[in-house]
Amino acid sequence: MYILATPQASNFVSGVDRAFLLILGICFVFLIGLTLTMIWFIYRYNRKRHPQAVQIKGSNTLEIVWTVIPTILVLVMFYFGWAGWKPMKTAPEDSFEIDVIARMWNFTFEYENGKKTDTLFIPMDRPVKLNLKSLDVIHSVYIPAFRVKEDVVPGNDKFMWFIPEKEGIYELFCTEYCGLQHAYMYNWVKTMPQDEFNKWYTDTTVRAAAPVDSPAAAGKRIMTNIGCFACHTIDGNKLVGPTFKGLYGHEVVLKVGGETKTVVADEEYIIKSILDPNSEIVEGYNKGLMQSYQGQLSDTEIDQIIEYLKTLK
Predict the structure, then answer these.
(1) Would you say residue 139 has pLDDT above 90?
(2) Which residues cross the membrane (predicted)?
(3) How many CA atoms lie within 13 A of 154 on its CB side?
(4) Which pLDDT belongs to residue 1?
């Protein structure tokens, strides 16, 4: 794997960097200027040189100067910041659209042809629009090399867009603290030439060619991609949710309302736990931490997950 963090990875790099460097430069000028002024005042007006205090009257000219100049500088900084931010709010109509599904604690990227990946594959030199959706709490998509960042708010349709300009692999991660495994929301963006991307996008054999030897192996891969192991362990230890070790075929104590009941963790129980996880909660755990995967997983994928759980004796 290689990483190219070039300064022109997207069309927004120059505008954002220009505003950043301008503000940073102004800050340095004031830092150095005020520090030197302070040192000069310490030398010029120290007690040895002026043992007798002298009253210094105000200056209208000085008041005007240090009001007008900072105001102008603030307006200049605002202009360059606004100029870099404003184009981000309107995506071109011919943008290539990808859905970004955020949940605790992973991102999934869904394409119009049905492909789902945990790495964001995008074409070069073409507007890309990411439709941002959260299934639980507030997340935030940040691609540092592209200079783009946007919060992902539940129930609020938001988007971000950019034009990738350099081939390479870049970092993508969540910058909104979203719970215990927030630091694990770390993915990659792969920018490819248009012809290479078209080949990948239209290739329907990729999934079949993946190194999956059995339904159980496929189930483990699916659970890894959708972030199951961020909340559940396979070694018997407790985490956010109950462990998967020894789950299938064994009794589970559930809390329903104010009462408890015991059921066997069979296919029906696992399917219900995936599609309606908050209807029945395992005793000792909290409600509302897991969101439904209804519409996110096919029947075949759920069957493969069940096959994998059967192997965790």
Answers:
(1) yes
(2) 20-43, 64-85
(3) 8
(4) 37
- Express each pLDDT in 70-100 by its tens digit: 999 999 999 999 999 999 999 999 999 999 9
Look up residue 123 and give its two tokens.
Answer: 């074409």
Count of other CB atoms within 10 angstroms of residue 102: 26
Contact 207, 226 (CB under 8 A): no
Rounded Cα distance between 188 and 122, Å, is 11
Asked which of 189, 207, 225 is the last residue of a domain, the reply is: 207
Q: What is the CATH number of the domain that holds 50?
A: 1.10.287.90
pLDDT tens digits, residue range 250-292? 888 888 777 888 888 888 988 988 888 888 888 888 887 787 8
DSSP 43-83: HHT-TTT-SS-------HHHHHHHHHHHHHHHHHHHHHHHH
Does residue 260 contact residue 283 with C-beta atoms inside 8 Å?
yes
Residues 203 and 217 in one domain: no
Candidate from 155-159, 215-219, 224-228 with smallest mean pLDDT: 224-228
- CATH number, position 261: 1.10.760.10
Cα–Cα distance, 79 to 306 (Å, whole number): 56
Phi then psi for 99, rounded to 5 degrees? -85, 130
Domain residues for 113?
96-207
In whole angstroms, what is the distance from residue 66 CA to residue 69 CA?
6
* Domain count for the chain: 3
Q: Cα–Cα distance between 216 and 305 in angstroms, integer?
A: 7
Cut 0.90: pTM above it: no
Q: Say yes or no to pLDDT of 217 above 70.
A: yes
